[in-house]
Specification:
By secondary structure, the chain is α+β, with helices and mostly antiparallel strands. It has 5 helices and 7 strands. Helices cover about 25% and strands about 20% of the residues. The protein binds coenzyme A.
Length: about 210
């Protein structure tokens, strides 16, 4: 049976990123593009992603990431490639039907202030749009940077409990001094999903009761 092909529409912002990533993967190992680009990460990127993130983690600006954590969450990640080298990364983690978190945003100190961090956040925004997730959040010390991108400060307690699962790994844990910021994508329809319960004060992670029965 013949199935009529639908007319091609112009590629979306996200499809452009994907196409570049596919080309990069195809060429992995024998060629590096000199054109700056943002692309979804591949398994080859993990050592360099860890290096960029952990250089900032050593200064207390973000959480350390192990190779194990990066492999596990690799599909959330995008990298910024400049002259064939990864100089920045970020991840978009889905928290709930209407909420995704910008995580592990890091730019190599040698190329800071060139708009790379902003472009990585724009990648997260495009990805949230593709997924039809209306709200993005970030827990950050970089309030001015995120404010320039349209994020607004919110009360931490307004975020769902699930956001805090990473806090057990943080040395600051209960004394978290990060700022919670949110960006609402008004062009993405509000989804009628069960709301995530708000964070009860003093509780950082959900604990399931264990029974022998
Ligand atoms: C925060 C970070 C990602 C910014 O990346 P970057 O590539 O230097 O940022 P950009 O060049 O896109 O900056 C965009 C704008 O924000 C401003 N900006 C960047 N960092 C800033 C800061 N710390 N304080 C105030 N403004 C800042 C820039 O001056 C620029 O302003 P302009 O548009 O008026 O020129 C980078 O500095 C970094 O990796 N920091 C350490 C890790 C970290 O804190 N990550 C955030 C975890 S949530």
């Amino acid at each position: 049976m013949l199935v009529a092909a639908t007319p091609a529409s112009p590629p979306s912002e996200h499809e452009c990123y994907r196409e570049k990533a596919t080309q990069a993967s195809r060429l992995q190992g024998c060629y590096h593009s000199t054109r700056p680009m943002i692309r979804p990460s591949t398994i080859h990127d993990v050592p360099r992603i860890a290096e960029v993130i952990n250089s900032h983690a050593e200064l207390g600006k973000m959480l350390f990431k192990s190779y194990a954590e990066l492999y596990e969450n690799l599909r959330d990640f995008a990298v910024y490639e400049l002259d064939g080298q990864i100089v920045g990364c970020c991840a978009l983690a889905i928290i709930w039907a209407d909420l995704a978190e910008v995580r592990s945003l890091a730019v190599d100190d040698n190329v800071r202030g060139r708009g790379i961090g902003s472009q990585l956040v724009q990648w997260c925004i495009a990805e949230a749009r593709r997924l039809q997730i209306r709200k993005l959040m970030s827990l950050t010390y970089e309030q001015r940077f995120f404010a320039k991108l349209g994020f607004e400060v919110v009360d931490k307690d307004s975020l769902p409990l699930k956001v805090w699962t990473d806090c057990v790994k943080c040395p600051k844990n209960e004394n978290c001094d990060e700022i919670a910021m949110v960006l609402v994508l008004s062009d993405v329809p509000d989804i009628k999903a069960t709301a995530a319960p708000p964070t009860p004060r003093g509780v950082s992670i959900p604990v399931l009761e264990w029974s022998e029965e």
